[in-house]
């Protein structure tokens, strides 16, 4: 039986975008929320991260099978 990780959501500031020069080290960034920091893989297609101050990401993560969370949705954080 394959267990699925629950989908979670974090909103916050993009920090520490690390672009690696090595093929063996992944590009990453951190999303700093109010109560936690999550490290995600950074892809060149995610250029909107550089221009956004606050974003929300829906993701799932199971550290038994994955090194980084799987991202389902990235959107600007709506401030009310």
What would the keywords be for this entry?
single chain, 80 residues, mainly beta, 1 helix, 5 strands, 5% helix
Strand order of the largest sheet: 3-2-1-4-5
- Helix % is under 10%
Number of domains: 1
Please tell me the overall pLDDT.
Answer: 85
SSE string: EEEHEE
The DSSP helix count reads: 1
| Head-to-tail CA distance between termini | 42 Å
Helix-strand makeup class: mainly beta
Question: What shape does the CA trace take?
Answer: globular
Tell me what portion of residues adopts beta-strand conformation. over 45%
List the uncertain runs: none
Question: How is the biggest beta sheet arranged?
Answer: 5 strands, antiparallel
A few lines on this structure:
With 80 residues, the protein is mainly β. The protein has one helix and five strands; from the N terminus they run E-E-E-H-E-E.
What's the structural blueprint in terms of helices and strands?
Elements: E1 7-18, E2 28-32, E3 37-41, H1 48-51, E4 54-60, E5 70-76
Describe this structure in words.
With 80 residues, this protein is mostly beta strands. The chain has a five-stranded antiparallel beta sheet with strand order 3-2-1-4-5, with no helix packed on it. The N and C termini lie far apart (42 Å). The protein has one domain (7-76). It is globular and about 40 Å long. It contains one helix and five strands. β2 and β3 (37-41) form a beta hairpin.
């Amino acid at each position: 039986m394959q267990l699925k990780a629950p989908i979670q959501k974090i909103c916050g500031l993009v920090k520490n975008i690390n672009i690696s020069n090595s093929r063996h080290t992944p590009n990453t960034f951190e999303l700093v929320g109010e109560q936690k920091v999550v490290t995600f893989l950074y892809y060149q297609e995610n250029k909107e991260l550089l221009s956004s101050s606050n974003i929300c990401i829906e993701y799932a993560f199971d550290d038994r099978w994955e090194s980084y969370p799987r991202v389902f949705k990235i959107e600007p954080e709506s401030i009310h």
